[in-house]
Fold Methionine sulfoxide reductase B.
Amino acid sequence: MSYHYNKLTPEEERVIVHKGTEPPFTGEYDNFYKEGTYVCRRCDQPLFSSKSKFDAGCGWPAFDDSFPGALKRLPDPDGIRTEIECAKCGAHLGHEFIGEQLTAKNTRECVNSLSIRFIPAEQKKSDTI
């Protein structure tokens, strides 16, 4: 099956295709808390709701939940961590950590900002007359 992929910058490609990592505390969504949805930067698949985002203090955007079926979990080559990918296109997102007791769901999806794009929630049309 063939998908249309968004054009990536060289840095986005380094992270998404070649499984790189952006430096901590540098991503545009690390300290970002607006209402909306985070989608895969490569294929626009919805991945996370802003309601699941929390401040883990780790230097990358952190989520304690994802949309059903949005993520693929794979053993990381380091043999310790679990890599998370977009289930639709296989884009590298980051890593999953379980058991840290940071939220009630006890899960941290640690995601590179370069792997995701934020779509703001629609504004209410209460201003129209």
Notes: Strands lie at 36-40, 46-49, 53-54, 62-63, 71-75, 82-86, 92-98, 107-111, 116-120. The two ends are 46 Å apart (CA to CA). The chain has one domain: 13-120. The domain at 13-120 is CATH 2.170.150.20 (Metal Binding Protein, Guanine Nucleotide Exchange Factor; Chain A).
